[in-house]
Inverse folding.
């Protein structure tokens, strides 16, 4: 997607590429393994998709902080 946008977009204003998924907030190394390829491919935002999770699980994940890429 990033390559397509770069090749076809004529505007010079910023353009974000957003990905959604679910990471394991407890294992930082596994998060890096999961997020780094998206970052290298041009993704600028990650949305932690916790749709349908119980409220307690969502609150616990929020308390772990945002996922970290390299």
């Amino acid at each position: 997607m990033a390559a397509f946008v770069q090749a076809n977009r004529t505007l010079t204003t910023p353009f974000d590429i957003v990905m959604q998924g679910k990471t394991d907030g407890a294992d930082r190394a596994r998060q890096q393994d999961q997020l780094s390829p998206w970052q290298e491919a041009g993704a600028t935002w990650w949305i932690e998709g916790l749709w349908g999770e119980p409220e307690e699980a969502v609150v616990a994940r929020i308390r772990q902080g945002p996922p970290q890429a390299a």
Observations:
- The longest helix spans residues 28-40.
- The chain has a mean pLDDT of 90.
